[in-house]
């Protein structure tokens, strides 16, 4: 039953498989199965590491030349800085992949920097998963009740159609008039027409209610996946071009380049932790609205009498879910700001936030257009 309902909605409130794929997007940087012997950006990463190493050697040679030939004061710390940068470049990516050393180690500088954000992200992910289990059960209950409501509506719709067709049969009308009289037949026709019109109106509400539920789920997933994918794009860019930033920090005017890169890298890495942190609160909100929807659908499908009363006064059971999705989309836009707050003087990724706000605006315009089309 649930599979049929999911195929009707076309999307689930939680898509863990797709989330896992998106979070692993940058793994194909060195994936041999993607483009052959090397990943799609592996060549660019190698060139960046090589250029950074060459730049560091030139700067170190220039410093040594000035100290030895031009009789400048010997400053060991200045020569020590290119050495530190060169060590970082050698261990930038796992030596097992780069071949820089013979250790074959899978440890690298990027893993060291991302250790704390990943630990926090692991904890917030566990909180999110615990709440997601409850939401999945509640959402499945909603789907089953929606299926029951649609089945009961189909039965009542069939009864309304039979009554409407019966009042349209001249022979049946004439026979009924002879037995009960004209007034009784007139009342019967009015009741049949009223029931038929009510069933049509309720059917439109039921259909729109499912569309509202679908749009609510799509709006939420758009904001969720947009945040994840923006993080992966930014992480990929910072990973590939990071060596050049560290090499530029050897120049006097760009001494703070490495610190700015480090701030951005840690900030973006905290996106995952903050995404699940915000997602936990978002799921709490969904838990509330789904409980309300379950109560409404349970009351509607309690009996044929309650279903008939619902047809007389139809309403959208997914209204709160739509409101919760819009609120969730706004909350997800806070992820870049929250991640920046975790790092002293962290830069807020305005591009990610603006992208999320633009998607939210476009989703609301699409939803409004869809609803207007359906109403017409």
Write the layout of secondary structure elements.
Layout: H1 2-9, H2 16-23, H3 32-35, H4 42-68, H5 76-90, H6 95-98, H7 109-113, H8 115-167, H9 170-180, H10 182-248, H11 257-300, H12 304-312, H13 319-332, H14 335-341, H15 350-375
Helix pairs in contact: 4-5, 4-10, 8-10, 8-11, 8-12, 9-10, 10-11, 10-13, 10-15, 11-13, 11-14, 13-15
Organism: Bacteroides faecalis
Transmembrane segments: 41-64, 195-220, 232-251, 271-294, 315-335
Keywords: Membrane, Transmembrane, Transmembrane helix
What is the string of helix and strand elements?
Answer: HHHHHHHHHHHHHHH
Mean pLDDT: 75
Structural domain tally? 2
Radius of gyration using CA atoms only:
32 Å
What structural class do you assign from the helix and strand content? mainly alpha
Transmembrane segments: 41-64, 195-220, 232-251, 271-294, 315-335
Keywords: Membrane, Transmembrane, Transmembrane helix
Organism: Bacteroides faecalis
Protein name: Plasmid transfer protein
Task: Give a written overview of the molecule.
The chain crosses the membrane at residues 41-64, 195-220, 232-251, 271-294, 315-335. The protein folds into two domains: 29-106; 115-375. The protein has 15 helices and no strands. It has helices at 2-9, 16-23, 32-35, 42-68, 76-90, 95-98, 109-113, 115-167, 170-180, 182-248, 257-300, 304-312, 319-332, 335-341, 350-375. Helix 4 runs antiparallel to helix 5, helix 8 (115-167) runs antiparallel to helix 10 (182-248) and helix 11 (257-300) crosses helix 14 (335-341). The radius of gyration is 32 Å and the shape is rod-shaped.
